[in-house]
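Notes from the pairing session

We agreed to fold both candidates in a single pass and log them together. This is the raw record for the first candidate, unedited. Please don't reformat it; downstream parsing expects exactly this layout.

Candidate A
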Amino acid sequence: MVFTAPFFVLFRMETNQFLLYGANGYTGKLIARMAADYGLIPVLAGRNKEAITSLATELNLAYQIVDLDNRNELVDCLRQFKVVIHAAGPFKFTSKKMIDACLEAKTHYLDITGEIAVFEQAKRMNEKAIAHDIMIMPGVGFDVVPTDCMAKLLKDQLPDATHLSLAFAMLGGAVSHGTASTMAEGMGEGGAIRENGKIIKKPLGHKGRWIDFGLKKIFVMCIPWGDVSTAFTTTDIPNIETYTMASPKTFKALKWQAVYNWILRMSFVKNMAKKKIKAKPAGPSDEARMKAKSLVWGEVTNDAGNTKTARLIGPEGYTLTAISSLIITKKLLLGDYKIGYQTPAGCYGADLVMEIPGVTREFL
């Protein structure tokens, strides 16, 4: 484990420092580079010494080299910090190791996942988090801050809502290696919705529809987005479906998934996909990010058939992720948090997303 930085940097970081694990990933780098805009100074961490030290030198930041599988070193590292942003996915493989270490170290846990299983796993650790006096909040990025805030906004407008539909789309931009790798891990696994309070497996894209996002009308299909877990925690709405943009051609092709999903679940197929991912750019360029927009739409319905609908426009997804994760980190460092398992809007309210520059929203 290595900890290096000029002494004066370490001294003034005492009240605004946090640990950024997985700092060498695409989103981790964005968070590290934007932290100063929020008066925060990350200590960069990860297991890739060459990548971490290179970034630390570029940004003149402290760093620590520690592997998630080295429990003792990880706990010793975390004990130096009040908060960690865990940015090393796929989180189905990494989140529990970090949360377990955070419990022992009594360090607040944040991550940028969008995986239903990770949210559900974290939720089951609520009592442990309370006992250790820490907050566990997965999904402090695009997954799931804007959609979670949309769910809370609509629930506040229609308190007896029984059904929630959420959809998101991107205009421009691209996916990072981390996001693509997580998608590769989920190949062949199908979809999921929440029905009568329970998470139910469904074929991926079992429903499709056109949605007017304001800037554009876009075709979307049903996917297993993290809000299937988190929006239920935030709103108690028992029936939840989540959608994202897809071509009608892809939607039609998914009707045959029962025939080929078993092939997509095979390890060598997933490994081939990951190899192709690594050969592509790490993520969207800065220019592409600045031009791109994220779009969110939501609708709730009650038993009487009354509805409330709203939509939101914000910055590109990775940009939003970096900003929202830093906003929440700053709140934590200032003592604004609740112990136990929390969701972004459940803890900070529907207007959390409005603290992100460039976000606008409207009721329809």
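Candidate B (folded immediately after A)
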Amino acid sequence: MAPASKSELSTIAERLQAIKSSLPEGVTLVAVSKFHPVEALLEAYAAGQRHFGESRAQELEAKDVAMPPDVVWHFIGHLQRNKVRHVVRIASIIESVDSLELLRLIDREAVRVGRRIDVLLELHVAEEETKSGMSLAECDALINSIAREPLSNVAVRGLMGMATFTDDEKRVRADFNTLRMAFDRLKASAFAKEPSFDTLSMGMSDDYGIAVECGSTAVRIGTAIFGDRNY
């Protein structure tokens, strides 16, 4: 059953509970907190939420200082090379790795600060060219490269992607199924001996129900929890 609409639920805690009750066991809810004030995050935290998603390094740093230490930070936005050092110091998982160069830089910074970082490889499957991410061929080439020269302090945990922004449910479902097939293929081949390759992050406020039906193990939801963003 779909959760009640945002307009029917007055508090962040109520919205969180409604969404969590609609998710199957084993699906991680990442509360996308970018552009929302710390007060909103603390309300979600008080309601039991621990996984939060941010897309800007400066905002991540500011919120990390203000939030309790057991928050699990997901970096979900396009990561600029000059911001890697800041993000690696804080984030538990970087979901937006879209090139071998970026992956190697994350690994070097993780070694430098003595942390192990989980990452997801971001695939581009949507029709919009403005969305970031690698093609399937580019992803395969990246994986072949790290097979030859393994990473030191980074673990590839799975894939991330976004569906086309459209009301066409068939298009959205096709995009998610493309991501799921890529995930299944890699899990059965390149990562067959890596049980930690277990995360398929797809689905946001408007389409997470379809994403879960297609096999998502993590959904990134912001508006349906916090309301419209404060740009």
